[in-house]
Design goal:
It comes from Pogonophryne albipinna. By secondary structure, the protein is mainly beta. It is built from five helices and 34 strands. The strands form eight sheets. Strands 1, 2, 3, 5, 28, 29, 30 and 34 form an eight-stranded antiparallel sheet that branches. A five-stranded mixed β-barrel has the order 23-24-25-26-27.
Length: 531
């Protein structure tokens, strides 16, 4: 059957010569390259419209798990199909609540695709969490080895995560525990069904898949809960309001989400225009891993700036390590976490973002420092909580003699907390014509390499190296860099062949890579993936 086997596909590319450019205090190295036509193994779904939504790679075995429309696949490292699990289509209607698998529904039923919304490996229990759009967003726990269904909880309202079938609206983070239960943090768009679904919550992941506590909220009482819902008053002010969760991760003692949401007016004036009329803001949300009351919730705007141009519409993100060279430029350790992000220009047209985009990097240390400053100012009684979409009004910060250290997880005052001061990253690379849509990274021999995907299906390989403005490149570093590029060319020969050229930079007598690049600073080889 088509799609149940791997096939050979061709990758062709336009030849370009790369260069070194100075961007916001960083040297951007894109290995100069000439792309050659090569053959790659590919895997296809049974039907063309059953798109792939999520992919995760097992850290130990290297097996690939793909969440697609109506299917979950397990593949080997060479894209050989090992096993598939059917998730749809099924008869359903989004108006059926609770879903018809729990009780009969009077609404007309139609065959409905199941769009994979979440695909996470629970390493501590050797299982895969797969959540879809059918039946108000129920999940399955599948055995990693053979995708056998361990459990499909669906009989309680806590089991329904969201019926939104749009991709890029939900993200989850699994936090393993030393005890019986792990914790699942979920952020999701709710599509106007704020009474049914919280926008963010933490849920139990018991070791026993048959446990009655599976996916229950960590805490849920009349007064405090491990969840936040969008108030109906907010939708009355901004009819299209929702929060889209683009990325999430855990680092240190915290869980973070990167979101995009419409801005809400500071007064009671409503905004009932179309999505195209709204201004959007990208935000970073932080919670303590062990905070069941959500007293630690802090949300700040995030973005980056290049030559006065603001990039504020988040497209993608990836948590990684900086490597020794980039870490030196960022004044952090090579083992510290950094966040690579892709933003589009401006704050409008989130659903049809501009092609002008930027690759940026944030250090988690800097993000935490900005959050700490915000907490300290609020606990000194300065300003208000600045979270209009949730609180509906200006709430003054309460002055309290509380020491705010790096692990502070909030009290029952001054929470939940927002802010308006932008957390700004370092802009590494810009692209004006072919919008960047995805990013991942890895460290090779001390150098950090980013792979960026674009709207047209091109792949850019970007090496992020030392800041020559602050630290002139000595001969030893230069030789290491040449060796790196040559070794990296061999290691990445499946992508392209690389050549390098050095020339003397006149100012200061330093050495730098140079060559011809795009007018927008897009240097290097961009390969079009065969369709």
């Amino acid at each position: 059957m088509e799609g149940r086997r791997a096939s050979r596909r061709t990758l062709s590319a336009d030849p370009k010569v790369g260069a070194l450019a100075t961007l916001i205090g960083f040297w951007l190295l894109v290995a100069p390259a000439f792309c050659t036509e090569q053959t790659f193994t590919t895997f296809h779904p049974e039907r063309r419209d059953w798109l792939f939504n999520h992919l995760t790679v097992h850290q130990t075995t290297g097996a690939l798990y793909i969440g697609a429309v109506n299917r979950v696949y397990k593949l080997s490292g060479n894209l050989t199909l090992l096993v598939s699990h059917d998730t749809g289509p099924e008869d359903d209607n989004k108006a059926c609540y609770p879903p018809l698998i729990v009780q009969p529904c009077s609404e007309p039923l139609v065959s409905t695709n199941n769009v994979n919304k979440l695909l996470l490996i629970d390493y501590s229990q050797n299982r895969l969490l797969a959540c879809g759009s059918l039946y108000q967003g129920v999940c399955k726990l599948l055995r990693l080895d053979d995708l056998f269904i361990l459990v499909e909880p669906s009989h309680k309202k806590e089991h329904y995560l969201s019926s939104v079938n749009q991709t890029g609206t939900m993200y989850g983070v699994i936090v393993p525990s030393q005890g019986q239960d792990g914790t699942l943090f979920i952020g999701t768009a709710v599509d106007g069904k704020q009474d049914y679904f919280p926008t963010i919550s933490s849920r139990k992941l018991p070791r026993d898949p048959e446990s009655s506590d599976m996916l229950d909220y960590e805490m849920h009482t009349d007064f405090v809960s491990s969840l936040i819902k969008i108030p109906s008053d907010t939708l009355a002010l901004v009819s299209h309001f929702d929060i889209y969760y683009v990325y999430g991760f855990a680092s240190g003692g915290f869980v973070y989400f990167l979101t995009v949401q419409p801005e809400t007016p500071e007064n009671s004036m409503s905004s009932s225009g179309s999505n195209n009329d709204l201004f959007y803001t990208s935000r970073i949300v932080r919670l303590c891993k062990d905070d069941r009351k959500f007293h630690s919730y802090v949300s700040l705007p995030i973005g980056c700036v290049k030559n006065g141009v603001e990039y504020r519409l988040l497209q993608a993100a990836n948590l990684g390590k900086p490597g020794r060279i980039l870490a030196a430029s960022l004044n952090i350790s090579a083992t510290d976490d950094v966040l690579f992000t892709v933003f589009s220009k401006g704050q409008k047209q989130f659903h049809r973002p501009p092609d002008d985009s930027a690759l940026c990097v944030f250090t988690i240390k800097d993000i935490n420092a900005r959050i700490k400053e915000r907490l300290q100012s609020c606990y000194q009684g300065e300003g208000n909580l600045e979270l209009n979409w949730l609180l509906g009004k200006d709430v003054q910060c309460t002055k309290a003699p509380v020491p705010i250290d790096d692990s502070f997880c909030g009290l029952d005052i001054n929470q939940p907390l927002g802010g308006s001061q932008l957390v700004t990253g370092h802009t590494l690379y810009t692209e004006t014509r072919d919008r960047m849509t995805s990013v991942t990274s890895y460290v090779y021999n001390g150098y950090c390499v980013a792979f960026v995907g674009t709207k047209s299906g091109r792949l850019k390989k970007i090496s992020l190296c030392i800041d020559a403005q602050q630290a002139p490149m000595n001969p030893q570093t230069e030789r290491q860099l040449q060796s790196f590029l040559l070794e990296h060319r061999r290691e990445a020969s499946d992508w392209w062949e690389a050549t390098t050229a050095l020339k003397e930079e006149r100012s200061g007598g330093r050495k730098a890579f140079d060559g011809d690049g795009d007018e927008d600073g897009g240097y290097g080889c961009t390969c079009t993936i065969g369709r």
